[in-house]
Amino acid sequence: MTRFRCAIHIVPRRGILDPQGKAVADALHSLGFATVGEVRVGRHVVVEIEAASEDAARDQVKAMCEKLLANPVTEDFEIASLGHA
Amino acid sequence: MTRFRCAIHIVPRRGILDPQGKAVADALHSLGFATVGEVRVGRHVVVEIEAASEDAARDQVKAMCEKLLANPVTEDFEIASLGHA
């Protein structure tokens, strides 16, 4: 078995209201960052996992996202990076 | 002015307790993902901003992280990507 480290981005699906993103955008404007446009706030999750291969690790991470980490109705996820820990 | 899109990762500083990461790791174990090791949960923020150049955009994003987005005591930030929107 090999230890892998995987970074996952979980973001609000496009078209779905992102109140957190809106709040951050408003706060940035009030701090003087006038040229800020859309802001989207999601989660950056880094998972260490032991697996037989990189593909096996990728499959497990996908299953984790589908079962727990990402809300299938309102969020999208992407595996941003996967490599040896 | 040009419109840029920037992705920022804000993560708990190493050595600082990450209760959210611990909770996610425990939940993954209980779902049968036994080979999961450390889990760290941070924020993935995507900001659209107009700036005169890529360097100017990078400087503004850094200032946003230092002033608002990242807690200077408990979190580290990195600009994961910066390019034309």
TrEMBL record, chains A, B:
One of its GO terms (molecular function) is phosphoribosylformylglycinamidine synthase activity. It comes from the Bacteria. One of its GO terms (cellular component) is cytoplasm. It is an enzyme of class 6 (ligase). It is found in: Cytoplasm. It catalyses: N(2)-formyl-N(1)-(5-phospho-beta-D-ribosyl)glycinamide + L-glutamine + ATP + H2O = 2-formamido-N(1)-(5-O-phospho-beta-D-ribosyl)acetamidine + L-glutamate + ADP + phosphate + H(+). Keywords: ATP-binding, Cytoplasm, Ligase, Nucleotide-binding, Purine biosynthesis. The keyword Nucleotide-binding applies. Part of the FGAM synthase complex composed of 1 PurL, 1 PurQ and 2 PurS subunits. Belongs to the PurS family. This is Phosphoribosylformylglycinamidine synthase subunit PurS. It comes from Gemmatimonas aurantiaca (strain DSM 14586 / JCM 11422 / NBRC 100505 / T-27).
